[in-house]
Protein 1
Amino acid sequence: MEQKRISVKICVGTACFVQGGADLLLYEDFLDPELLGLCDIEGTSCLGGCKTDDPKWKAPLVEIAGVLYPNVTKQRLAELLREAVDA
Amino acid sequence: MLEINNQYTLMKRRIDAEVLKAYFADTLEAVVDTLPIHIIPRERDPNRCCVYKERAMVRYRIMALLGVDIDRDDDEYKPLARYVGEALSAEVQPLPTLTTITPGCSGCPDEQYRITDSCRGCFARPCLANCPKDAIVFTNGRARIVEERCIKCGKCLDVCPFHAVIHVPVPCEASCPVGAVHKNDEGFVEIDHEACIDCGHCAQSCPFGAIAERSSLIHVARMLKEKVPVVAMVAPAIEGQFPGSLAQIKAGLVALGFTKVVEVAEGAHVTALHEAREVAERMEAHAGFMTTSCCPAYMELVDRHIPSLSARRSTALSPMAYTARQCHDQMPDAKLVFIGPCIAKKVEARKIPSISMVITFAELAALFVARDIDIKEIAAQEASDSSLYADCRGFACPQGVSQSVLRRSDKPVQTMNINGVDKKTVRLMRSWEKRPPEVDLVEVMCCEGGCMAGPGVVVNPKIAMRLRQGADVARVGTIPLGGKKHV
């Protein structure tokens, strides 16, 4: 059975980019190749989530299969993608 | 050295942005004393012992941002609002640049080699055989290091087949190329400012964030807010630091309120021309090698520690100095702000009266965030003709300076590069008095990876390099890093 590919959008708006988002763009370096093979990853314009005053919504943001996640680190991105692939 | 973006540097950037937001909203003095609570809410899962310690460290970070010399002027009774008032009336770049936050210092144990439980007490005993000081003894069938005899050469670590030897460094001390950082009698970090060359390596390597650089960001913010004419002189390393082209970054700076943006690569062209001419003269006179003079930490290193190299340095001024001269001639009434990846530039700039302030790319990033300027979406500034100096943007990268000199030289100049200065490199450079390198030009960069990896950068050089080569930021992750030559 063909597994559905997961669309991953890393915010590269300036606020996300300078607060850790740029490091996420090194995904080829730190993600498991198996995960890489199942995901379509690209940078995207500001996703808007950082504009709220809610302390939970901190840059950098990543959208995975249509769901927005704040405060994403390299480790967190790897976890989130693993969850998305296993789901 | 730690990664460029870690919990601490990201926190620093966030604090900078919050302070600036409040400053531009005219509420800074009212909210600054509660900012630590806002930034570290009670629910936070703390990285230090508790949220209260984290808040105290945020307070110190804000003081460093305001340019306070925490070593000397830390007054716990004084509200931050009063520090803000004082900071805003200051006119010059604060020196010394680096300051220590003793309450943040973990007081790491002295550097040591230690043998762990993984020691199998083997028959061959390579640790014992290789120790030059007989510091290894065996008790109960296990190796042990006699502290008094150990000279920390690390030979035992290299030869143990079970990786049973560990090296525990003091990160700040280990990173300092000149031994200016040490622990005081109480066991906390102290910087010997007479010996310090302001390379910033200690601040980059302390995992507790106990060494901070005193910033001029608030002064630059004030210039922008008061709309005085101010020129941004951007270092060649800026390309690749933000998610857009160089022309977009320039447009972003204008949107921040800078009257004009000038590339320091223009001054780098003058530096390279001067060095090409000078190296040719030296070659004709068989005067031996010459070193570059654009790295300010290297200049301080020679002034303070390696006098034998004083006359070896090129007499060319730094790209920043030439650019400042040019800007000052064209706009004598404007204030000049240098924006770069470097801490030592803050010291150099104090010697050039026309330069008002120096801020880093990381601090510029906080300005962009605070003013909600998105480099990715901004319309690019119209490009002027840069063909004369475009190649000098390479000054930011290892070998970039020597290549720019080579391109301006009609002689076959032999070059050599010092890519990053540490204790070992300093020993090597000291030996040049007796054994000079057999080349014509030595390019020296104190940071390994060049200015692109300086203490004030925002972006991992791997990503920055791809962006400098013209990669689209949305697709940059998929592009493999090509060849070794980057200009």
Note: The longest strand of chain B covers residues 335-340.
Protein 2
Amino acid sequence: MSKLLIVDDEVEICEFLKSFFEDRDFEVAVANGGSQALEKVAAFHPEVVLLDIQMPGMDGLQVLKKIKETYPKVKVIMVTAVETQEKIEEAMRFGADNYITKPLSLEYLEKDVQDKIDILAKGF
Amino acid sequence: MKQKGWTSLKRDAPFHVRTPKTVLKKVLVGLVLFSFGAFVAYLLPFLMSFSGASGPWVHHPLLPILVMTAIFVSAYKSTEHRIKKFLEKYFFHKKTFAQMTLMDLTGELAVNLDIQEIANLVVNTFGEVLQLKTVALLVPDPLEDHFEIASAFGWTISASKKVRLAADTPLLKMIHQTGPHVLMRGPVLQSLSWQEANALARDLDSLQAAWIIPLFVKGELTGLLAFGALVPDTVFDQGDFHFFREFAAAIAPCVHNAMVVKRLRQLNFELQDSQSQWVQKTKLNAIEKLAAGIAHEIHNPLAIISGKAQVLLMQRGPKQLEPNVQEALNAIVKQTHRAADITRKLLMYSQGSRGPQERISLEKVLDETLSLLAYQASTDKIEIVRNLDRELPLFFANMQEIREIFLNLLLNAVEAVGAEGKIVVELKYRRDEELIEIVCSDTGKGIPVEHLDKVFNPFYTTRHEAVGLGLFVTKQIVHRYGGSIRVESQVGIGSMFTLQLPYVAEAMREKEPVKTGAAVLNR
């Protein structure tokens, strides 16, 4: 079973994503903030992280940087409510694997997560 | 270089040129003195007899001649000037009249602050009064570091526009050396080596001038009055040159002040321009902040609504949704994305687009946009006419932005026309002005006069279901391309939007001009 970590300060967003991916046989963990996300990455060892950019406290970009420093193999898909060019460029510089905007298209998201897992399975 | 008529002053002409007039004056002075001498000689025998002198020599015929000569020789020097002045005053009215006219002009110039008017008055009066062939008044261009012709007499406009006298040209260097003296082509060229003379002659030829009067104000060169004569051997005497210097001293401050005023006006205009750009930028920044805030606050709830609907729609397993439930969920997903698009759009335009630019066919983009509206137009009995220039060049722009312009203009027109009417879209390339012109007119309900200046404001709308960003966004795009947009409208008859975009064929346009506001031009 593929492991997916969902990080968003909006509990409801985490909830429906969790049920969506569990329905598709993923093992899903949820974090509602930056520091909690880092703890979960260490304990849960997800293959893919869905990471919200705008969060109170440690924001998504900082979390992304730390994840990529410690676990460079983990695939991170950034989720944003507002896509400013600067934020997207910064995220790409920190090694984000993709970014998607809210409201989400679950069809696209599912395909993208699956792509990342396939890449990992091939050993990249 | 072949010398032209106005330059054909003999190179060996002495500095103090004798004109027919000065010779005439000298002859007149001589005549007056001789007559005085003759009168004295005639009286001599009587004077002699009164004083008691006598003898045969008194009646000698050589005596009167001797006396006449003596008086002529001794009195010539001292009286010449006075008699000349007297003669000039009463017998050579023409020149005095010319000088008076020119001095009158200086009084008129002193109360004028428009450099163009001053220049026109100076060259025309100077040229006509002195019956010259060419006169040109050159003034410095403070930004470009050269002198150019402000106004010219006896020149073709196109020729006068071409003249540029750089600060390091031999002529200007020479004038800085010689100061406020009138520069005469012949003598000056003669005093130089042939290389220097050739270089200077080229400058003088470019100004079609045989004489240059420099205009100095406090040691600063503020202008040049360059002129050439109609008659090749026209010459001016010392009195004329003295007057020219006086005239130059009188008009120089006027020219200087007018130039200062012109510069101030320019600066004031630039200031106003940058101020309005700043206001525009501030407005955009405020909208950007607002849009970013709204987007963040709204996109999360929208994501939840749409997400939950999608989870239900894409559920796996035996449970099948009722068709009407499925339909409702689809509508929820679709409408939440539509709502998110509004804030995204607002954000995108307030930030300025950074999309790629390429050479695009405006006709193709227009046709694509028209095809989007074709269905609505046909159901509503709206006739859409395209009116295109036969040779429309490819335009270097962002396809998305140009499409947005057409779409917004056409959507507005369709909305204004209602159930029945006509929309005309014109695309023109104005070659001489290098402008692309887009005109969209409709036979719709029109815009009331009091709303005309508001139609480009964000959130201005007359429709309940509309956001009111279409024309605002269009204006932002047009400004980003350095263009202008205006609207004419009459209630009950229709509206006409005219857009002008500076034509650009290649990637020469500045990057992101809207961020600096540099490209906002209102033609």
Note: The first strand of chain B starts at residue 132 and ends at 141.
